[in-house]
Amino acid sequence: MTKSVNLYLASGVSEGIGFWIINYTEEDNIFNSLGSKLLECYRKELFGLDGAIDVKEAINTTLDILSLNSKYDKYRLDSHNTGYSSEIPINLIEDIFDLWAYNYNNEILWKKYIGLLNLRKKIKKSNNYINLGLKGETYEFATKLDRLLSFRPINSTFILDKDNDLMW
């Protein structure tokens, strides 16, 4: 029997820069895990250690894909050593957390979903041809995942390469 841990989504500040973090701890009070850097906890779910590791990895992979896709589209999301950019909206982070945390219970679907995530990691852009071959719950999951990964900052100040702007 594995020990129980709390998987959490929290915001924090390090050296004046805000960040999001997904991690797990045995502590009931998650604010003890990173010291005074954490500000607020948005999600906290009880998992076994193995489950927390799997879900944390899936969430972090999804956020890595989101950051990389934004970079390919010439949008800058500040990267932090501690966590993910605070420029990512809280509702998007919560949706990604919920998507993976609530789908962990079904082992068969979990393996399919992780397979989709790994495929999505290899393909740099959304590819609707992949979704055409899916049906049922797997199709619904792939559609949700694509919707979550399609986020781009609205503010044009995040655009990295302004040299290609139109002159008129």
Explain what the structure shows.
By secondary structure, the chain is an alpha+beta fold. The protein has one domain (4-158). The chain has 5 helices and 4 strands; from the N terminus they run E-E-E-H-E-H-H-H-H. Strands 3-1-2-4 form a 4-stranded antiparallel β-sheet. A hairpin with a 2-residue loop joins strand 1 and strand 2. The chain is flat, with a radius of gyration of 17 Å.
Kindly list the characteristics that best describe this protein.
alpha+beta
Secondary-structure blueprint:
Layout: E1 4-14, E2 17-25, E3 38-48, H1 49-72, E4 84-85, H2 90-102, H3 107-122, H4 128-132, H5 136-149
Antiparallel strand pairs: 1-2, 1-3, 2-4
Helix pairs in contact: 1-2, 1-3, 3-5
Domain count: 1
The total beta strand count reads 4
Largest sheet: 4 strands, antiparallel
Strand order of the largest sheet: 3-1-2-4
Secondary-structure class: alpha+beta
| Percentage beta strand | 15-25%
Q: Give the integer mean of the pLDDT values.
A: 80
Q: What spatial form do the alpha-carbon principal axes imply?
A: flat
Helix content: 40-55%
Short note summarizing the structure:
With 168 residues, the chain is of the alpha+beta class. It has one domain. It has 5 helices and 4 strands, in the order βββαβαααα.
